[in-house]
Design a protein that fits this description.
Length: 175
Amino acid sequence: MEELSMTSDHEVQSRKIRVPLHRFRPLKKEWRNIYDLVSENMKINIRMNLKTRFVELKTRPEDHNSQRLMKCGDFVRAFILGFGVDDAKTLLQNNDVYVLYFEFTDKNKLKSLGYCKQIQDVESSTKTSIVIEGHKFHILGTFSGINAATNAICHLILESSTGIVDSNPTLTSKL
């Protein structure tokens, strides 16, 4: 979905994040908010390359803070995954907030699950933000919140399915 690349040239570092077609319109709509947060607050240069569909981030020549570059890249990536600007902004403000995703491979069990209300309950009880894209679950929050939300979602999925569960969710963390 996204392609990340990081380069360094004479102390100026950059990061490129691919924007899929279905997230291009929301990115254009929220561009001003994203631009202000990254450029003015975090002091990182940002531009949207319309031709290649990449968001490009660069440290400024007078300030080579790669940590801010990584935080801004994570912020933009979180927005592209489907989180709102306000939710993704927590990645810029807190050092202990991460994005994790897991994938549930048995799509038939997911189709039978009416989980919108339960997912909202999991979000509020674990203080996380959850985006569902097909059979992928993206969770933004602290380590303990993500762990609790992952367990709750897996429990909801496995509880709603009938019969013996023959597949385990694959967990992959993205920092």
